[in-house]
Amino acid sequence: MTTATATATATAFPTNNHKTLVLKSAILSRLLLLSLILIWRTLLAPYDTSAHLNPNCLRTVDQDSDSPVVPFPRLASAIENGIVWDSVYFVRSAHCGGYEYEQSYAFLPLLPLFISFLSRTVFAPLVPLIGYRAVLAFSGYLISNVAFVFAAFYFYKSNGVLNAGYFCFQTMHQAYDAVFIKKRAKVSICMTVCLPDLAC
∠ CA 168-150-153 to the nearest 5 degrees? Predict the structure, then answer.
C-alpha cells in the first residue's frame, strides 16, 4: 500500500530535476536567441525599417520622461534598435498612454500596461541613463521573456518535459522549417494542378 502511494505521489508531483531542466532550457533558449539577434544585428543591416519611425504622440505626454541627453547613448541606441515589427506598436501604446491609430487595436493592452508600469516604477532609475524609449523596450523584453519561462513551466505541467523542451527551442527552428513547409506546399499545388492533366 505504501509503495503504491509513493508511486502515485511520484507521478503526481514531478521531480525537481525535470523542473530544473525546463527552467534551464527556457533560459538557455532565450539567451541563445538574444545572442543570435545581437550577432545578426552587428553583421547585417536590419530588414525592417520600422525601428526608425518614432513620431511624437498625438496626445501630450510627460516631457520629463524623454531626456534629450543620456550618458549611455550607444546602449540606448542598441536597445532601441530592437524595437521592430510588432514591438513598435506595443512600445508606442505604452509610451503614448493608449491606442492612437486604428491598426494599433490588434495589439492587446496588457503588455503595454505592464511595460508602462515597470518603466515608471521599477526601471524608473534607468530613464536618466538610457532614455525613456529604451527603458520601455527593455521592460517589454524582460516581461516577454519572463512570460516565456512561465509558459514553459505551464507547458511542462500540462504536457511533460519533451514538449516543454520543444516549446523552448521552437522559435529557432521555425525559420529553418519554413523551407520544407513551403516545398511541401509547392509540391501539393503542383500535384493538384498537374495530376488532372496527366490523367487525361
Answer: 65
Q: What is the CA radius of gyration of the chain?
A: 23
What cell was used for 190? 503542383
**Which three cell numbers, joined as nine digits, stand for 74?**
550607444
| Residue for grid cell 523551407 | 179
94 vs 63, which has greater pLDDT?
94
Strands (E), 16-126: none
The one-letter amino acid at 19: K
Q: Are 136 and 118 in contact (CB under 8 A)?
A: no
First vs last C-alpha separation in the chain:
71
| Long-range pairs for 83-90: beta carbons < 8 A, 24 or more residues apart | 83/51, 83/133, 83/137, 84/46, 84/48, 84/50, 84/51, 85/48, 85/50, 87/137, 87/140, 88/50, 88/51, 88/53, 90/115, 90/140
User: Binning pLDDT at 50, 70 and 90, where does residue 1 land?
Assistant: very low
The pTM is what? 0.70
The model's confidence at residue 139, banded by pLDDT at 50, 70 and 90, is very high
Give the per-residue pLDDT at 120.
Answer: 94
